[in-house]
Amino acid sequence: MFDYNPCLDETLRLKPAVIAGGYRQTPPGGLWFDERFAPSDTTVFVPAQLIQTDGRYWPPARVFIPERFSSKSNDLSPPCLPFTLGRQACSGKNLAWISMRSTLSKIAQHFDLSFGPGENGEYFDTEALDLLYDGGDPARGAAR
Ligand code: HEM
Question: Any transmembrane segments, and where (predicted)?
Fold first, then answer.
């Protein structure tokens, strides 16, 4: 039987539904993020897609390789957090997984999919924009 889970995991790594996790405020005293300091009460967010497509953690980062998720461990690294982590993480995660599995399996059973004329998937992959951010500077959480 075909295991859809690694395909969904890998899709959520490359194209997370929530590109950048929810906003948070830094605690009193502020927080260090590597070499950057954010003072207390600063609004910050985790750029999930940027982290999940960082070649340091996921080489080759932009390539769709579901097998990366075939053998799951409890190890939290390399980072993949499409539902974010901790207390404010997605409370609909289990329902989302059921829904994704059943949708994908229905599509696979009932449709033959192919790219439309003139499409090869590249445009969607390279030109899709995250409208929340203006692109370009990874330190600013750009989507590309
Ligand atoms: C693939 C599907 C989904 C993804 C990738 C996703 C992702 C996320 C993420 C990243 C957050 C955290 C936002 C933050 O950090 O503030 C979140 C929160 C939340 N999600 Fe989802 N979600 C999905 C589906 C669902 C579904 C199906 C439901 C409910 C039916 C749901 C309900 C919620 C709720 C209630 C929260 C807020 C949790 C809280 O603040 O305590 N999500 N989701």
Answer: none
Look up tokens 């445009």; give the residue: 123
End-to-end CA distance of the chain, in Å? Answer: 35
Helix (H) and strand (E) counts in the chain: 4, 4
Residue 10 predicted with pLDDT over 70: yes
Residue 75 has pLDDT above 70, yes or no: no
Looking up tokens 């330190």 gives 139
> Is-contact 143 19, C-beta < 8 A?
yes
What the block records as the tokens of 4 is 């859809």
And the tokens for 1?
A: 């039987």
Report CA Rg, the chain: 17
Tell me, in angstroms, the distance from the centre of ligand 1 to residue 24's CA: 15
Q: Which two tokens stand for residue 51?
A: 């982290």
**Atom in ligand 1 nearest the alpha carbon of residue 45:** 15
- 116 Cα: distance to centroid of ligand 1 (angstroms): 32
Residue with tokens 């003139």, as numbered in its chain: 118
* pTM, 2 dp: 0.82
